[in-house]
Design goal:
- By secondary structure, the chain is mainly alpha-helical.
- 77% of the residues lie in helices and 1% in strands.
- The protein is built from eleven helices and two strands.
- The protein has a two-stranded antiparallel ribbon.
- A hairpin with a 4-residue loop joins strand 1 and strand 2.
- Helix 1 crosses helix 11, helix 4 crosses helix 6 and helix 10 packs antiparallel against helix 11.
């Protein structure tokens, strides 16, 4: 019996090691493949692929700065708005929500997180875009359009709409993880401060959030990663024009992210080596951005937890 148990344990460890090794090998192969396919673009464009503002397929001039900046801007804006919304949802769910409503909220959050991104894209394109244009962009442009970041014309499809759709997409991810983290706050800490006469808000402020800050940060990074890599929904609502931020800094201008650029041009780029290589080099840059953010997040998370990870 013991020999069988030890054999199964060793077999299980071996399977885990093989699975881990496969993941590492896949990542290394993907990294090497992106570098190899990016070399023609780097040789042709050099540093211009990072700082250039022109994307001219005919003359083989490929500058990726607008796509890189739009990717970072839309993702960071989405996280900045999604984080407080998610915290409010998690606090309401764990502290104030009646038990009979919790199940409904949980089901809605799970459903929103599971909806395919193309559905969000179609909804944003056909339903939200006209409403945003008529009820938000046009009034704002009419009253404060003299401020460059709110200048017109109103297109509907814009980096503003893309950020809004990203907020809606990542709120379920961050809020569901934050609810799980809040739920793991030790009951003894809660009961201790309640015994001292603390209100529910004081329990959240002095116990729940300080105890959960590392987990909240990790959930936020996961949301940021989702926003950085989102393709279909962003491609359908961002306008796919190389306008923002060098020809217009207005948040109502159409723009292009790295993923939307790749999705919209890759099929036609196969006949031009430098064009396809430039799109792959943008993918490589996005991978480096994602790795850098995760590395930085890991360092900050270790600081939150006192290096106990």
């Amino acid at each position: 019996m013991n020999n069988k148990f030890f054999f199964l344990e060793k077999l299980f460890k071996l399977i885990l090691k093989i699975a881990t090794l496969i993941i590492i090998i896949i990542f290394i192969l993907m990294f090497i493949s992106l570098i190899e396919r990016s070399i023609p673009s780097f040789l042709k464009n050099g540093i211009y692929i990072l700082i250039g503002t022109t994307w001219d397929v005919y003359n083989e001039i490929f500058g990726g700065a607008p796509a890189i900046l739009a990717t970072l801007f839309s993702s960071i804006i989405a996280v900045l708005f999604a984080l407080p919304i998610s915290l409010f949802i998690a606090i309401f769910y764990t502290e104030y929500c009646p038990l009979r409503i919790r199940q409904l909220i949980s089901e809605v959050i799970s459903l929103l997180a599971a909806i395919p991104s193309v559905i969000y894209g179609i909804w944003g394109l056909w339903t939200i875009s006209p409403l945003i244009k008529i009820y938000i962009q046009e009034p704002i442009i009419a009253y404060i359009g003299f401020i460059p970041i709110f200048s017109g014309p109103a297109y509907g499809l814009s980096i503003f709409l893309a950020s809004l759709i990203l907020i809606i997409m990542i709120v379920p991810i961050i809020s569901s993880l934050t609810i799980d983290i809040f739920s793991k706050t030790p009951i003894t800490l809660r009961e201790g401060i309640i015994a001292l006469g603390a209100t529910k808000w004081e329990v959240v402020k002095y116990i729940v959030i300080p105890f959960s800050k590392g987990g909240i940060f990790a959930a936020t990074i996961l949301g940021l990663g989702r926003a950085l890599g989102e393709t279909m929904a962003v491609t359908m609502v961002i306008g796919n024009a190389y306008v923002w931020p060098f020809k217009s800094i207005s948040i109502f201008s159409p723009a292009t992210t790295i993923t939307s650029k790749i999705a919209s041009e890759f099929p036609e780029s196969v006949v031009n080596l430098i064009h396809s290589s430039s799109l792959i080099s943008l993918a490589f840059i996005l991978l480096i951005i994602s790795i850098s953010i995760n590395f930085l997040a890991d360092l900050i998370l270790k600081k939150f937890t006192g290096g106990k990870l």
